[in-house]
Design brief:
heterodimer, A: 76 residues, Non-ribosomal Peptide Synthetase Peptidyl Carrier Protein, Chain A, 4 helices, globular, B: 192 residues, alpha+beta, Ribosomal Protein L22, Chain A
Chain lengths: 76, 192
């Protein structure tokens, strides 16, 4: 799942894909602005057919957090 | 003091260029407004990652950048700034961050794209002023009259200003104090 998140993320950042890990913080490390971050989450929702609530979205610090949440959501 | 630099060409496309310019603007405005030149060890981050100056309790700042635009707000009260280029917007992003009424008003307006980013930057400027960024539930913050000069927000104790230019950038600034911030110096630069 992390691969898909990174693939979508690459539309918004200019960094080598290989440097992105589950520990990467999209806002503080990659300087993703809030609009792009919200658009990224929206694209993942569309692609995976899931809904990520605003309150949940606010809890993600790292890409690993987002990955873990999506995996859990996909099993529901 | 508010610094806004926009480019109609290919400037500030990369994030590195945007960061370099925003750091320069911040240094310049801190020097001009407060006569301070902080060293690299004088910055601290709050728990949401917002930078502050150590030992400078009355100096607040906020920076924002997007492809083609960089903005900085420096003030003696808590401030947040957000800049976006007006462009086709993401409806799911609007549904997430705007109320149903706000979104309807935008979609039915004469300039939906401009109004979308007016509202977006206003909300974002507030979340940056309070220092939480996206951690704040922006869908619970409501505005009225965003196309007029007297922008109204349900939150008390804050003042909002919107700046727009003919290069299609919208910049919103929030101050968490109610004095006359309309006299704030605004430096606008347009680059080729």
């Amino acid at each position: 799942m992390l691969n898909l998140i990174v693939k979508e993320l690459m539309d918004y950042v200019d960094i080598e894909e290989s440097k992105i890990t589950e520990e990467t913080k999209p806002v503080t490390d990659l300087h993703l602005n809030s609009y792009d971050y919200v658009c990224l989450v929206g694209k993942l929702e569309d692609e995976l057919g899931i809904t990520i609530s605003e309150s949940e979205m606010r809890k993600f610090i790292t890409l690993g957090d987002l990955d873990e949440y999506i995996q859990k959501k996909m099993k529901e | 003091m508010i610094y806004i630099v926009c480019s109609e060409g290919e400037r500030f496309v990369s994030q590195e260029e945007q960061r370099t310019m925003s750091r320069k603007l911040l240094r310049d405005s801190l020097m001009k407004e407060f006569d301070i030149r902080p060293g690299s060890d004088e910055w601290i981050l709050n728990s949401w990652g917002k930078p502050f100056l150590k030992d400078q309790r009355d100096v607040y700042f906020s920076i924002s950048h997007c492809p083609g635009g960089v903005s900085v707000s420096v003030s003696s009260c808590r401030t947040g700034i957000d800049i976006e280029r007006v462009r086709p917007f993401s409806l799911p992003a609007g549904r997430r961050m705007f109320s149903k009424e706000e979104l309807e008003e935008i979609l039915n307006s004469d300039f939906p794209e401009k109004n979308f980013f007016r509202l977006w930057t206003l909300k974002e400027s507030y979340s940056k002023a309070i220092g939480t960024g996206l951690s704040y539930p922006l869908s619970e913050l409501h505005f009225a009259n965003i196309t007029g000069k007297d922008i109204r927000c349900e939150r008390t104790g804050c003042l909002f200003c919107l700046f727009e230019n003919n290069l299609n950038f919208v910049t919103a600034v929030c101050y968490l104090c109610r004095d006359d911030r309309k006299r704030e110096t605004v430096i606008y630069r347009q680059l080729p």
